Write a sequence for this structure.
């Protein structure tokens, strides 16, 4: 069934976005600049893992081929991941992480807000629940962007550089393919043009308060919907999947 | 495993049993008071319980799924089906007033109704969360994220007590 194929493809996209960002943020565990920040980043990581689990559990029901949520997380290779490129960018320094989180959280917030209107019952419920969590995420990262941008000369320079470096990965969040376009037409996926408009407004508002410059749109990286990724994803998966690869089906 | 023991309990009695299960992270209130149990049904000798998790990544969810099975097993009920119900999403509005008072006595500031933010940027929760120790209004948020996803960190400027606030979602 073509419609089902499209939905499966889309669930991979959504689940991988949450899973990979969750893993990146989990790398901060015990390394946060302050205790509160350590706790905040790992809490946000946990929300993302929770969303990924919901999506992969549902995917397992639809695929109905004996796979579990864990199989999707631990037994796929880079080329079988469909997350947006921005979430796999390395953590870098704290400003890099905050910039990445803000650019993605703002997208995720507006995305879930629209997805909550989906005529797919599962996606609407997932979005209605997740948007409440992501609201706290974008507020957290947005406030940090302002604090760093409107902070010291050094913090401003660093966060501006982080944003400039990440900008070429932002276009990929809004890219669709023919499968997703069909879901949009069917009222299952939201209109990505609208999400981009809303995202741009949020980004501009925060940058204005942060006294930061919005980079010019230049060449935008893409390819994640075909499973083409940067060199960083493989290393991330090596870390995340190690235990299940070394000791298949190990359980706690 | 099929268990043919007939379930003699009524739906109300099942609710009463569930109401004795403490929340794994906030044991001052039960999982019923927390509002995560949405429906109980007995049909064809099977007890079905609908659960709505608080946060999607809440690790306590796994724990209270097991607790439900364990507590019902003590009462001789083993044919149990647990259904994760995601819609409507859990909200702090489902906490009863009684549960909120229990939270406060336990040392966690309860969510303040109607303070869910309408906008989403730059509005850090309610203006005043009274201190759980001295009741002073002179408190400030130290972090929107606490020891669990559902709580924020506050401190009291009057008695200097740090405390947690059960944030509205």
């Amino acid at each position: 069934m073509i419609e089902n194929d499209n939905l499966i493809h889309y669930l991979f996209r959504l689940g991988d976005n949450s899973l990979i960002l969750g893993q990146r943020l989990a790398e901060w565990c015990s390394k946060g600049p302050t205790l509160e920040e350590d706790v905040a980043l790992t809490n946000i990581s946990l929300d993302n893992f929770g969303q990924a689990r919901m999506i992969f559990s549902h995917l397992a029901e639809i695929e109905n081929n004996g796979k579990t949520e864990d199989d999707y997380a631990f037994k796929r290779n880079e080329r079988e991941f469909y997350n947006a490129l921005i979430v796999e960018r390395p953590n870098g320094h704290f400003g890099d992480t905050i910039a990445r989180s803000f650019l993605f959280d703002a997208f995720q917030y507006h995305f879930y807000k629209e997805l909550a209107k989906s005529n797919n019952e599962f996606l609407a419920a997932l979005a209605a629940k997740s948007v409440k969590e992501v609201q706290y995420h974008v507020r957290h990262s947005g406030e940090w962007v302002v604090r760093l941008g409107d902070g010291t000369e050094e913090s401003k320079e660093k966060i501006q550089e982080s944003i400039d470096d990440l900008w070429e990965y932002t276009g990929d969040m809004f890219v669709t393919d023919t499968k997703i376009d069909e879901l949009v037409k069917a009222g299952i996926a939201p209109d990505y043009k609208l999400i981009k408009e809303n995202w741009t407004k949020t980004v501009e508002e925060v940058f204005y308060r942060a006294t930061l410059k919005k980079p010019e749109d230049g060449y935008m990286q893409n390819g994640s919907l075909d499973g083409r990724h940067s060199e960083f994803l493989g290393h991330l998966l090596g870390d995340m999947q190690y235990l299940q690869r070394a000791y298949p089906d190990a359980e706690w | 495993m099929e268990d043919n023991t007939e379930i003699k309990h009524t739906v109300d009695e099942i609710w009463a049993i569930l109401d004795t299960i403490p929340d794994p992270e906030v044991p001052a209130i039960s999982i019923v008071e927390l509002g995560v149990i949405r429906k109980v049904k007995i049909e064809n000798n099977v007890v079905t319980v609908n659960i709505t998790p608080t946060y999607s990544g809440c690790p306590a969810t796994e724990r209270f799924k097991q607790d439900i099975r364990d507590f019902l097993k003590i009462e001789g009920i083993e044919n149990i089906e647990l259904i994760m119900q995601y819609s409507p999403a859990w909200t702090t509005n489902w906490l009863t007033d009684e549960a909120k008072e229990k939270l406060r006595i336990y040392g966690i500031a309860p969510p303040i109704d109607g303070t869910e933010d309408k906008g989403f940027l730059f509005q850090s929760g309610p203006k005043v969360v009274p201190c759980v120790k001295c009741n002073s209004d002179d408190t400030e948020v130290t972090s929107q994220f606490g020891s669990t996803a559902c709580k924020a960190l506050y401190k009291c400027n009057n008695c200097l007590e740090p405390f947690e606030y059960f944030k509205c979602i």
Summary: Residues 95-166 of chain B form one domain. Chain B has four helices and seven strands. Strands of chain B lie at 37-43, 46-51, 80-84, 108-109, 139-143, 151-156, 162-166.
